[in-house]
Amino acid sequence: MRKTLLYSALILLSALFIAPFYWTFMTAIKSTADLYQFPPVFWPSEWHWENFAAAWNKQPFGTYLTNSLIVVVFSTIGQLISSSLVAYGFARFRFPGRDPLFIVLLATMMIPWDVKMIPLYMEFNMLGWINTLKPLIVPAYFADAFFVFLLRQYIMTVPMEIDEAARMDGANAFDIYWRIHLPLMMPALVLVGTFHFMNAWNDYLGPLIFLNDQSKYTLTLGLSMFKGLHEVDVTSIAAITVILCLPPLALFFVAQRYIMDGAVGSSVKG
Amino acid sequence: MDMTYAGAEPKVARRKRSAIARYAAPYLFISPWILGFLFFTLGPLVFSLTMSFYDWPVVGERTFVGLDNYRTMISDDPQFWESLWITVKFAAIYVPFNIIMSFFLALMLHNIRFASGFFRTAFYLPSVISGVALVTIWSWIYSKEYGLLNFMLSLVGIDGPNWLGDPNLAIVAIIIASLWGLGGTMLILLTGLKAIPKELYEAATVSGVPGWAQMLFITLPMLGPMLLFTFITSIISAFQQLTIALLLTKGGPLGSTYFFAMYIYDNAFKYFDMGYAAAGSWVMFIIVLALSLGVMRWSAAWVYYEGEVRQNDGDGHA
C-alpha cells in the first residue's frame, strides 16, 4: 500500500520532468494544422520528419554546429590533459606551498562568474580574441578547479605502493602519470569529459559575450538568435531545440553509470 | 596491472636527472592551473577591482573616480536596489524550494528498488540540456493561448493567466523553470542518503524509535554536510541567475524579473560602462561571500561531521 502510493507519486512527478521534452519533440514533428489546435494535439495526426531538415536550412546551422564542435572537441581535450596533470601533481607530491595552493584552488570555485566576466572580456579584447572561438577553448587548457578536485580525490584512492614499485623499476614522475594513473583514472576521466562536453556544448553566456559575427556563432547562440527573429516559427524552433538537446542527452545515456554513481560521491564527499 | 617499461634508460643517467626533477616536477605538473589561475582568475579579479574605481568606457579616456561608482550605485541608482531586491526575492524562494524538493525526491528514490534508475534519470534529464533549450521549452509551456500549462489549468476549470506577461507571475514562472533543473542537487542528496549506515536505522527501530524521530535525529543530521553543500551552491547559482531571465522574460514585464546579474550585464555590454559594471559585480561577490560564510558559521549549529564524512582537506569547516 505504501509502495503503491510512493510509486504513483513518483510516476506523476517524473511525468512533470519528462513531459516538456515529449511536448517539444511533438511540436517539432507536427503539421501546422495540428500545431494550432485547441485542445492541443498530444499525438500528431501526421509525422513530418522533414521539419527537421527544413528548420536546419533556415539559417547556417551547419556552420553553428561546426563551431560548436570545434569548441567542444578542442576544449575537452585541453580539459582532460590539464586537469589530470594538475590533479596528479596535487595528489602525489609533497612540496612547499601545496596545501595553501590547494585551498586557493577550492576557493576559486566560489567566485561568481560575473566578477570575472567583464575583465575577461577586456583581457580577450586586448589579445584580439573577441569574435574568435579562442576564449571558449584556451581557458580549458589551464585546468578547472572542480575537475582537478574530482580527479585528485580519485588518484588518492590508488595505493601509493603502486607508484613506488614503478619508481623502483626506473619510471619517472611523468611515466607514472602517463602509464599508471591515466589508465587507472579512466572512469573519472569519462566523467570529466562528459561534464565538460555538456558545459561547453550548453554554454550560452560565453558565446553571447565573446562572439559577434554570425559565422562564429555556436549552436546555442544560433538558436537563441533564430528564436528572437522568428518567434512565430514554432516548428523550426522546436526542431532545432531537439537537435540541440540530442548530443548531451545521448552522452548522458552512454556515461550514465559513471555520472549517477561515481560523480557526486567522489567529488563532494571528499 | 602492466608495469613493465619497454626501453627504460640506464638507471645512472636517470638518477642524475631526477635530482633536479624532484624539486621541479610537482610545480611542473600543477603549472597549468597556476598559470590559469593567474590569467583567468586572479588577474581578472584584480583587474575588475581596479576597474571598479574608475570611470572606464570600453573605448576612450578612463578616469580614476575612487569610490564614486559604489556611492552612485547605493545612493543614486534605483535600478541597483530594485534588481538586488528581485534577486534576493528569487533566492529566498528558489533556494529553500530547490533543497526541500530535491530532498523529498531523493528520499523517495532512496526508498524504492524497482525502476529507481529510471526515475533518477527522469529527474536528472532537464539538468543535462542547455539553458537555451530549457527556456525555449518553457516559453511554450507558459504561452497564454497555446501553452501546455494553461491547457492543464483549463481542464480543471481555471482560466490560465498570462504567465510571462504579468509582473507578479513572471518571477514565479522563472522560479518554476529553474526548479526544473534540480536534478543535480537531488543526486548529491541521494548520494548522501546512501552513505548513511543502515545499522543506525536498525538500532533505532529495535529500540522503538518512531519513523519521524529517525528522520529528525538520524537522517537530517547525517545528511548535514551534503545539505550545507547544496545550500551554498544553490545560493551562488541563485545570485548568478542570468540565462533564464535573459531569454525567457528579458527582465520584463515592467522590470519585474530584472535580476542583479542582468543589471551588471547591461551596464557592461549595453551601456559599456565597464567600471560601473565591475563595481556591481564586486557588490555581488561580497554579498555571495558573506552569505556563504554566514551559512557556514550558522551550520556549525546543525551540521554534524562524522569521521568518515569529514572533509579530509581542511577546506574551512571541520
TrEMBL record, chain A:
<feature type="transmembrane region" description="Helical">
    <location>
        <begin position="234"/>
        <end position="255"/>
    </location>
</feature>
<keyword id="KW-1003">Cell membrane</keyword>
<feature type="transmembrane region" description="Helical">
    <location>
        <begin position="176"/>
        <end position="198"/>
    </location>
</feature>
<feature type="transmembrane region" description="Helical">
    <location>
        <begin position="5"/>
        <end position="25"/>
    </location>
</feature>
<keyword id="KW-1133">Transmembrane helix</keyword>
<dbReference type="GO" id="GO:0005886">
    <property type="term" value="C:plasma membrane"/>
</dbReference>
<dbReference type="InterPro" id="IPR035906">
    <property type="entry name" value="MetI-like_sf"/>
</dbReference>
<keyword id="KW-0812">Transmembrane</keyword>
<feature type="transmembrane region" description="Helical">
    <location>
        <begin position="136"/>
        <end position="155"/>
    </location>
</feature>
<dbReference type="Pfam" id="PF00528">
    <property type="entry name" value="BPD_transp_1"/>
</dbReference>
<comment type="subunit">
    <text>The complex is composed of two ATP-binding proteins (UgpC), two transmembrane proteins (UgpA and UgpE) and a solute-binding protein (UgpB).</text>
</comment>
<dbReference type="GO" id="GO:0055085">
    <property type="term" value="P:transmembrane transport"/>
</dbReference>
<feature type="transmembrane region" description="Helical">
    <location>
        <begin position="102"/>
        <end position="124"/>
    </location>
</feature>
<keyword id="KW-0997">Cell inner membrane</keyword>
<keyword id="KW-0472">Membrane</keyword>
<protein>
    <recommendedName>
        <fullName>sn-glycerol-3-phosphate transport system permease protein UgpE</fullName>
    </recommendedName>
</protein>
<comment type="function">
    <text>Part of the ABC transporter complex UgpBAEC involved in sn-glycerol-3-phosphate (G3P) import. Probably responsible for the translocation of the substrate across the membrane.</text>
</comment>
<dbReference type="InterPro" id="IPR000515">
    <property type="entry name" value="MetI-like"/>
</dbReference>
<comment type="similarity">
    <text>Belongs to the binding-protein-dependent transport system permease family.</text>
</comment>
<feature type="domain" description="ABC transmembrane type-1">
    <location>
        <begin position="65"/>
        <end position="255"/>
    </location>
</feature>
<feature type="transmembrane region" description="Helical">
    <location>
        <begin position="69"/>
        <end position="90"/>
    </location>
</feature>
<keyword id="KW-0813">Transport</keyword>
